[in-house]
Design goal:
The complex is a heterodimer of chains A (about 575) and B (about 280). Chain A has 19 helices and 21 strands. Chain A is of the alpha/beta class and about 575 residues long. In chain A, strand 20, helix 18 and strand 21 form a beta-alpha-beta unit. Chain B has a single domain, classed as Thiamin diphosphate (ThDP)-binding fold, Pyr/PP domains (Rossmann fold), CATH 3.40.50.970. Helices cover about 30% and strands about 15% of the residues of chain B. Chain B is built from 10 helices and 8 strands. In chain B, helix 1 packs across helix 6 and helix 3 crosses helix 4. The longest helix of chain B is centred in the first third of the chain and has 14 residues. The chains are: A alpha/beta (about 575), B alpha/beta (about 280). The interface between A and B is large, with 64 and 56 residues. Strand 15 of chain A pairs parallel with strand 2 of chain B. The site of iron/sulfur cluster has 11 residues of chain B, from loops.
């Protein structure tokens, strides 16, 4: 990467950090740069400390960086909090009230934050002069872009699309942006770079939540029922934006128990249905998950993880639910579990999830996390909508005698032809109780055994659908093994390590259940050792691999502080492990 | 009036002889026959309990779900296809206890479902514990000193939440009950029919004799069901005289009429249009 700059905007919740970040991200995106923006906020609406961190590059950005090159501090506290993360030549722009304050602003800073690289700027004063304090964000964005070396025209263009219909507001914002831009004109910034001149966006800029919502639309999801819970709510908000143009209904349920039962009812009646929640809500859904299991009703459930147990850290990230979702609900029934590695894969996984859930008539769980959902990513390829949707539904016309239709007819694959209620003469009888083929309750030993075996029989076909973990320099001596959204950080860590001549590769799972045993065995057979890299405290994937393949991890790098991985953290810890072996 | 035998099936009934559920089952059949709804055109959704087994004893489509959760399942099915005619069978524990929050939500949503609560004032299937409608002092094995909390009044609760169709039936008045069910089915919003149901095994107080001495039918001529305050008063009658009939009914629209994506027809009938979706995603 010849360009690799990290900009952090920090301040109190409610100060408009998001707006500054959005403008910068959009200017960079439009100019043909790559970026990743992560959101770090507390579970509160005002006050506290929040920040948005944007990493900008001329190459695809896979993970956040551990060092800050440019810090935009909307309050003094931000300087203190991020001082340790500042890069050597890093620069801090500090918002100060007025010129008088400017002189002694450094003295006013907490001692540990006083350093030569703090540049006090009267952001809010300049905004007031341009027409209103509300434009402080525009001033700050202007200063930041100027330091990065952006042409003012690129900034102006984004302001124009933002305030397209409001001429006066636009004019004021351009003035505000200009004053921020000019204020730092003569300041040297070590990480300023030459902006690409071709100016075509390299991909779509979107959040993980959006990618999931788009995938649901492309999969022909018609009903999305949910109960609000961070970090899953965004998915539903994005889906709701389409309610006036596409046949999709977003229904806010009274609780998660209702949400999951609603989608089971909707799917039984014949439409594709989705719910999304986090661990707490998923816990409430577990009985419903079992209902989908025993009634063989296709549903898709997204669990966007946050650290727990119970309420845990509501606005932060984690990977603590893997073993939970694989085993959730009493007794046994087949299910799919996927943990997409990237926004593109999340989109594809939604389409695949709906397809497989109807093909096998089983619930599908998609594991994401706060880091994935709330970050702004760039897609690496187009998101295509399938031409057709295969529904795996049977009708009277397919049957020799519809009146004898049996919803749970025994077949070799375990999959019974699925008819929809009230669509013909075939009656669709379904129960949460154990049942016979016709769908009536049954307690006979024969029916019980037959139905358990029928449901289990699907596992064979389902396992065949599973893709193995994706290798990155997968033939290496040491493999870093992880799952889901840590993919990017693991891959960048591998690059760092390889550049220092460590024989290290990566192996990252998306498809986790039914466990792709053979493919995992193959992928692990060549390495000398593997180290698991996970955001939980027990290495859940490592335990699963050991249980399923007999291969044991050498050690694990575990982080459970609720913050996303950085490649540097993984690389440094890997080095310590490898140096110990030497 | 058409034949009720079309709804019979040969699945073995599992209720105790003399159980009030038989009367309710017959009333359902009668109503369906009267309204000429063919077996394949009806969807029954239920929770778990003796009441919730009802759909198994009918020739129909059914979804016999989880304890307390029939209303969300029925709501999901209705949102997917609002052309469906859906009847929901729940017990008093099922509906007013385990599923209480869903009842509150269903009342607010006013979605076109007909809810039949088989109210036997006790938990039948789990062998006789107190239910939310068991009276203060009701003695059971689990409450040997008697129930220490007051009974819920589901009809008053529903009225206080803006319910548009609230009725009470009695398992011993089959013809009357079948008419209530028919009225519920034709009501465009959510209809709650609480049905006094005798449990011969676990409720020795609220017997056929108990009800015979107390139940009276609201006179359609004299009792006007559109007066909310009068209706609330009616729901307070219990000790000596117990009214059955439509207690309250107001004009309404169904929830599904209000929702933007359903304006071009039931979700299930709308077509998948990849080009439109692609365009919408690209523009976002
Ligand atoms: C989650 C859950 N909790 C408890 C039960 C056990 N259970 C089954 S039916 C029932 C209560 C039955 O009472 P009611 O709803 O009044 O129905 P009835 O049998 O009286 O018709 C209970 C507690 C269950 N099946 N599921
Ligand atoms: S226990 Fe009561 S409610 Fe259940 S079948 Fe017997 S009489 Fe009916
Ligand atoms: Mg009961």
């Amino acid at each position: 990467m010849s360009i690799d700059v990290t900009v952090t905007i920090g301040g109190e919740a409610g100060q408009g950090i998001q707006t500054v970040g959005d403008i910068i991200a959009r200017v960079c995106h439009k100019a043909g740069l790559y970026l990743l923006a992560i959101n770090d906020f507390e579970s509160r609406i005002r006050g506290g400390h929040s920040f948005l961190q944007i990493r900008i590059s001329d190459q695809p950005v896979l993970a956040p960086h551990h060092k800050i090159d440019l810090l935009i501090a909307l309050n003094a506290e931000t300087c203190a909090l991020h001082k340790k993360e500042m890069a050597e030549n890093g620069l801090v722009l500090l918002d100060v009230e007025n010129d008088a304050e400017k002189d002694d602003s450094k003295e006013n800073l907490p001692e540990e934050a006083r350093e030569k690289n703090v540049l006090p700027i009267t952001f809010s004063q300049m905004a007031k002069d341009a027409g209103g304090k509300i434009m402080t964000n525009t001033v700050a964005a202007g200063a930041c872009l100027a330091l990065l070396g952006a042409p003012f025209s690129a900034f102006e263009h984004i302001l124009k699309t933002t305030f397209a219909e409001k001429e006066k507001i636009l004019r004021n914002n351009i003035t505000a942006g200009r004053s921020g831009f000019d204020a730092v004109k003569n300041t040297d910034f070590a990480k300023a770079f030459d902006w690409p001149s071709d100016g075509s966006a390299k991909g779509k800029l979107l959040s993980g939540s959006q990618a999931l919502a788009f995938g649901a639309l492309a999969a022909d999801c018609r009903l999305a029922a949910f109960y609000p819970m961070s970090p899953a709510t965004g998915i539903m908000i994005h889906l709701a934006e389409f309610m006036d143009q596409l046949p999709v209904l977003v229904e806010q349920a009274e609780d998660e128990i209702s949400a999951v039962n609603m989608i089971i009812g909707a799917s039984y009646a014949g439409v594709r249905a989705l719910t999304a929640t986090s661990g707490g809500g998923f816990s409430l859904m577990t009985e419903g998950l079992g209902l989908a299991g025993i009634t063989e009703t296709p549903v898709v459930i997204i669990n966007s993880q946050r650290p727990g147990p119970a309420t845990g850290l509501p606005t932060r990230t984690g990977q603590g639910d893997l073993l939970f979702v694989i085993h959730a609900s009493q007794d046994e029934f087949p299910r799919f579990v996927f943990a997409p590695r990237s926004p593109n894969q999340a989109y594809d996984t939604m389409i695949r999830a709906f397809h497989l859930s109807e093909k096998y008539q089983v619930p599908v769980i998609i594991l994401t996390d706060q880091y994935f959902n709330d970050s702004l990513w760039m897609t690496t390829r187009e998101m295509a909508v399938p031409e057709e949707i295969e529904r795996f539904v049977t009708t009277d016309g397919d049957m020799s005698s519809p009146s004898e239709y049996k919803r749970f007819k025994i077949t070799a694959s375990g999959i019974s032809p699925r008819a929809l209620p009230c669509k013909g003469r075939a009656l669709v009888r379904v129960t949460a109780n154990e049942h016979g083929e016709a769908g009536h309750m049954s307690e006979t030993i024969a029916d019980r055994n037959t139905m358990v075996e029928k449901r289990q029989a699907k596992t064979k076909g389902m396992t065949g659908e599973m893709k193995g973990p994706k290798g990155y320099h997968g033939e290496s001596e040491t493999l870093l093994v992880g799952w889901g959204s840590s993919d990017g950080a693991i891959r960048e860590a591998v690059d760092l390590l390889r550049s220092e001549n460590f024989d290290v590769g990566g192996l990252v799972f998306c498809d986790v259940w039914p466990f792709p045993r053979k493919k995992t065995n193959d992928a692990l057979s060549r390495c000398k050792r593997f180290i698991t890299v996970e955001q939980n405290a027990s290495s859940q994937l490592g335990l699963l691999i050991r249980q399923q393949t007999g291969h044991s991890f050498h050690t694990s790098l575990l982080q459970y502080d609720g913050r996303p991985f950085t490649p540097n953290w993984i690389a440094e810890h890997t080095k310590s492990v490898l140096e110990e072996i030497r | 009036m058409s034949d009720t035998t079309q709804y019979d099936n040969d699945y073995e009934n599992k209720w105790c002889p003399g159980c009030g559920n038989f009367g309710i089952l017959n009333a359902v059949k009668k109503s369906l026959a009267d309204r000429e709804i063919a077996p394949e055109k009806i969807l029954m959704v239920s929770g778990i309990g003796q009441a919730a087994k009802t759909p198994h004893f009918l020739h129909c489509n059914f979804f016999h779900g989880l304890h307390g959760r029939a209303l969300p399942v029925a709501t999901g099915a209705k949102l997917a296809d609002h052309d469906l005619t859906i009847l929901v069978n729940m017990g008093d524990g099922d509906c007013y206890g385990e599923g209480g929050n869903h009842l509150l939500a269903a009342l607010r949503r006013n979605i076109n479902l007909t809810l039949l609560v088989h109210n036997n004032l006790v938990y039948g299937l789990t062998k006789g514990q107190a239910s939310p409608t068991s009276r203060l002092g009701f003695v059971t094995k689990a409450q040997p000193q008697g129930v220490a909390c007051q009974a819920t009044n589901p009809l008053a609760l529903a009225l206080s939440q803006g319910a548009g169709f609230v009725a009470r039936g009695y398992c011993g008045e089959i013809e009357h009950l079948s008419q209530l069910i028919s009225a519920g089915i034709s009501y465009p919003g959510f209809s709650l029919i609480d049905i006094l149901q005798v449990c011969v095994s676990f409720n020795r107080e609220n017997t056929y004799t108990f009800y015979k001495d107390r139940v009276y039918t609201l006179d359609k001529e004299k009792y006007k069901a559109d007066d909310l305050h009068q209706a609330i008063e009616k729901t307070m009658e219990w000790e000596d005289k117990i009214p059955i009939g439509i207690i309250y009914r107001k004009e309404t629209r169904s929830y599904t009429d209000e929702l933007a994506p359903l304006q071009s027809g039931p979700l299930i009938k709308q077509t998948y249009d990849p080009k439109k979706i692609q365009k919408a995603i690209s523009a976002a």
